[in-house]
Amino acid sequence: MAESADMDQLMASFRKFAVHGDTKATGKELNGKNWAKLCKDCKITDGKNVSSTDVDIVFSKVKQKTSRVITFEEFQRALEDLAPKRFKGQSKEEALESIFKLVEGRGPSNVGVTKVAKVAALDRLTDASRYTGSHRERFDESGRGKGREGREDTVENTGYVGAYRDAGTYDHKTKTEK
């Protein structure tokens, strides 16, 4: 096996991938999705010798029958199973060391994650001084929103329909009729 410093780096990589995308994860167990991501991000899956199907098969082989996750020891066994397949020309020990080197110190990459919008377009669309019509009325001169005070049509719970001419005259009419 490799040195203890290498095992610490391997354990650190295992934990980084174990908690990736799961806020409740403790970092002690790795699920199948994150195992596949680890193999892809660390370039264990190369498309020729090791495919994503091979990765899934090895995961199913090393995990407990009723479990959906693997521990660090099972993770090491999974890497031992994939090492000779990934590095065909090397001996078992060299292949294992090479696959450990691929994983050590690595973390999940965020390729393809949604980027922040272009600043110029966002500034142009949120510039309140360029608003027209009724939208302009909702902002003051500095560009800050007026909130409810900036709206002309506020809801009044008087019991009358909006723009009713004789609003508030009901009590007067009933007193005069008696």
UniProtKB/TrEMBL annotation:
GO terms for molecular function: tubulin binding. It is found in: Cytoplasm, Cytoskeleton. Residues 134-154 have a biased composition (Basic and acidic residues). One of its GO terms (cellular component) is microtubule. GO terms for biological process: microtubule bundle formation; microtubule polymerization; positive regulation of protein polymerization. SUPFAM superfamilies: EF-hand. Belongs to the TPPP family. This is Tubulin polymerization-promoting protein family member 3.
